[in-house]
Amino acid sequence: MDTANGAVTVEAGSTIAVEDVASLTDADDNDISIHTTAGDIEVHVMDAQTSGDVTLTADTGKIADGTVAESENIVGDSAVLTARDGIGAPGTGNLNLALTSSLSATNTGETGDIVVYQMAAGGDLSLDAVQSNLLGSGNITLVIENGTLTVVSPGVSVAGTGSVLLQAEGDGKDITIHTDLVSSGGTVTVISDGGSVTMAEGTTLQTDGRAIDVQADANVVLGRLDARAAADRTSPVDWTISLPGVRWV
Ligand SMILES: [Ca+2]
Ligand SMILES: [Ca+2]
Ligand SMILES: [Ca+2]
Hints:
Blueprint: E1 2-3, E2 8-12, E3 16-18, E4 21-23, E5 32-36, E6 41-43, E7 46-47, E8 54-58, E9 63-65, E10 74-83, E11 95-107, E12 114-118, E13 125-131, E14 140-144, E15 149-158, E16 164-168, E17 175-177, E18 181-183, E19 188-192, E20 197-199, E21 204-206, E22 212-216, E23 220-221, E24 224-226, H1 230-234
Parallel strand pairs: 1-4, 2-5, 3-6, 4-7, 5-8, 6-9, 7-10, 8-10, 10-11, 11-12, 11-13, 12-14, 13-15, 14-16, 15-17, 15-18, 16-19, 17-20, 18-21, 19-22, 20-23, 21-24
């Protein structure tokens, strides 16, 4: 389905395969919005060009990569993706994006990962992502092929047991964290293969007694890393520090 000009809105009540939805005119008003109240959204090719925004909502299913090839599933300006059973999947099931500006991804169910790959054609990306289900097991994995990654409000969080991995590839491609990264039950990993990782003042990477791993090719500028068990965070601990051989003078 191609539109010469204007927005595209699709409402469905079952699994929908998006074979080829393209906006032929690159304009800020030419957004593409697809919502299904039941079933999945299988994305083959959606192209809103560099200015049109993409909104996909699968109330009771998943948003999946519908193609075998690792080519772009979604081209657009910003994308807002919401599903219950996952957004992309590990391996080639990852959702392949080429977004001009930003991605906001939310998974609400007990299962399903968020696995997205911003391709080189998309360049830099701002991200916020959440696994919102307290009983959830899904991870959040975002890899950016050749661009900087900026974590923006409301940040990246996992309410269940899943882990967070954010990775930027490419020379000088930094990761900048403006809002917290939190996993309630899993680990938090941030890797800039060719650049720096910078946490803005006052930001926190937090787990419940699980590992926090920050790696950069250049510099690491830390805010606060908090890998305490949650119980230690809520109940104050009395510390006694003895320093044998040290005298106050
Ligand atoms: Ca836009
Ligand atoms: Ca594919
Ligand atoms: Ca893929």
